[in-house]
Design a protein that fits this description.
Helix content is 40%, strand content 10%. It has 21 helices and 13 strands. The strands form 4 sheets. A 5-stranded mixed β-sheet has the order 4-3-5-13-6, with helices on both faces. Strands 8-11-7-12 form a 4-stranded mixed β-sheet. Strands 1-2 form a two-stranded antiparallel sheet. Helix 1 runs parallel beside helix 21, helix 3 packs across helix 15 and helix 17 packs antiparallel against helix 19. The longest helix is centred in the last third of the chain and has 18 residues. The termini are close together.
Length: 496
């Protein structure tokens, strides 16, 4: 479609008064007992109603240091009868409350479900993370009590950029010193487009590459995570290793699990915002990814499986897949499932290394309703979950969780803490969080986040797969198809 057609498509869309949406990831929802993080496919949220078209780098220029005063602003409500927290599932909130209030981890989920915790109400939507946005919108429209709620990375900015939906944490007396040791990328995601901190996460969802150690030795001759990292430490090496695995396995075994998983990692290497001066940016990065994906696709270096399917998890036990891109929250979920569970066919035959690209996958941010009537409780809950190092250290081990505090995690890792015996045994006794620590510290999103990222990333990977990999289209034609898709899905920005 040429520029005129894209313009006509935009005019038609506006004339019909259709709501523009932003998707929440490139795959279906997934949650695990280790975390509430999830990816979702084609689940959509409204585009920001206010003008957020400025260059994302402006956020860096307008960000000011926020002092920690400990004083709650007079405008913030206090003394409410019930402290109400909302989330899409019960994977995290109950245990954060238990840690905060010193309650029993074993009974807390049932206690909250039965309204048996004095003064605290938990609204559990019981849906995937990608479906939560609509639930929150309905909750706000109803005017029902809400103090604190959880946002997923893919659509957090929808609320963080809306002053009627999220409260600056400075209004709770919270500032930079309260969050001195959180990982940089989590801080950036929790800030509005003009640099105001409105959300904070208790977890760091850094990623790595979990691989079959037996197949790695057979096909690549590596016998340790250090040797594996050396073999796949950048994308060129990753493609070369994938070609070797494919050749030596006679095409049976792919190095990587899915195109979607690969994209989760690769996308974190982008150094230009997707939108600059309200215009879509298609740079060399886009072509480099497409060519890397094509090289893997054509040689059988990545499976054709859809993510979150039975075939995807089964590939870990039938030797058709050698490794998975996985985040901290996934080690006890899909990564363990890919081994067949505890005692499964390949249980204990896995290891993890950093992989070709520092990346994160998922994560959840705590935000506060500006109409809260429990400002003191909101502040104390946030401090317990994201700032109090003693409580975070205990939570990291008891939950377990890779908490969003570099000092806490460095101390626990250096003391060889066993965070989860089942996961550790699946990885041959490896201290798996140690492999992810450098990735968590290396990820840099400063000036790169825009409100449209989830939609653009999803549209890009879908177009590359359908046009460039499966359809055999030229790169120029693929770019035109991508522009057409963005012109339809993100009407607030310019597509030339």
């Amino acid at each position: 479609m040429n520029t005129l057609k894209r313009t006509l498509a935009l005019v038609a869309t506006l004339a019909m008064a259709a709501t523009a949406f932003a998707s929440c990831g490139d795959d279906k929802d997934s949650s695990s007992s280790s975390s509430s993080s999830s990816s979702s496919e084609a689940s959509k949220v409204e585009e920001p109603s206010e003008d957020t078209s400025e260059d994302a780098s402006d956020a860096e220029e307008t960000t000011n240091a926020e002092e920690s005063t400990g004083e709650i602003a007079d405008s913030v409500g206090k003394g409410g009868d019930t402290f109400t927290i909302a989330a899409w599932n019960a994977d995290d909130v109950p245990f954060l409350i238990a840690q905060w209030k010193g309650l029993d981890y074993k009974s807390i989920q049932d206690d909250l479900a039965n309204d048996a915790v004095d003064g605290i109400k938990f609204i559990n939507f019981g849906v995937g993370g990608g479906d939560a946005s609509e639930k929150y919108d309905n909750l706000f429209k109803s005017g029902d009590d809400l103090d604190v709620y959880f946002c997923e990375a893919d659509w957090a900015l929808k609320y963080i950029n809306d002053d009627e939906k999220t409260l600056p944490l400075a209004d709770l007396g919270l500032g930079d010193s309260d969050f001195a040791n959180i990982y940089s990328y989590t801080d950036e995601i929790g800030k509005s487009s003009d640099g105001v901190r409105k959300g904070v996460s208790w977890q760091a969802a850094a990623g790595g590459f979990q691989y079959r150690s037996d197949l790695a030795q057979e096909y690549l001759g590596v016998t340790s995570p250090e040797e594996m990292q050396a073999a796949i430490g950048d994308w060129d090496k990753f493609v070369e290793a994938a070609q070797t695995v494919s050749e030596k396995s006679s095409g049976k075994t792919a190095l990587a699990d899915t195109l979607g998983g690969m994209w989760q990692a690769y996308a974190c290497g982008r150094t230009t915002p997707w939108v600059v001066d309200n215009a879509l940016q298609i740079d060399d990065f886009c072509k480099e990814f497409a060519d890397t994906a094509k090289a893997l696709w054509d040689c059988g270096g990545v499976t054709k499986n859809g993510q979150w399917t039975d075939e995807w998890t089964a590939a870990g036990t039938n030797d058709t897949c050698m490794g998975y891109f996985v985040s901290t929250w996934g080690f006890g979920g899909f990564a363990l499932d890919a081994a067949g569970g505890e005692g499964g066919e390949t249980y204990g035959k896995w290891a993890v290394c950093q992989g070709p690209q520092p990346f994160f996958w998922g994560g959840t941010w705590i935000v506060v309703n500006p109409k809260t009537d429990n400002g003191e409780e909101a502040r104390d809950f946030i401090l317990s979950a994201t700032s109090n190092e003693d409580q975070m250290s205990t939570y990291a081990v008891n939950k377990p969780e890779y908490v969003n505090n570099s000092k806490v995690m460095d101390d626990l890792i250096s003391s060889n803490t066993v965070f989860n015996e089942k996961i550790t045994n699946n990885l041959g006794g490896q201290n798996f969080y140690a492999e992810l620590a450098d990735n968590a510290k290396t990820i840099d999103f400063n000036g790169l986040i825009t409100p449209y990222d989830a939609t653009i990333k999803t549209d890009f990977i879908n177009v590359v797969k359908e046009q460039y990999l499966e359809g055999g289209a030229s790169w120029d034609d693929t770019v035109e198809a991508f522009k057409d898709k963005i012109a339809e899905d993100v009407t607030a920005i310019d597509v030339e």
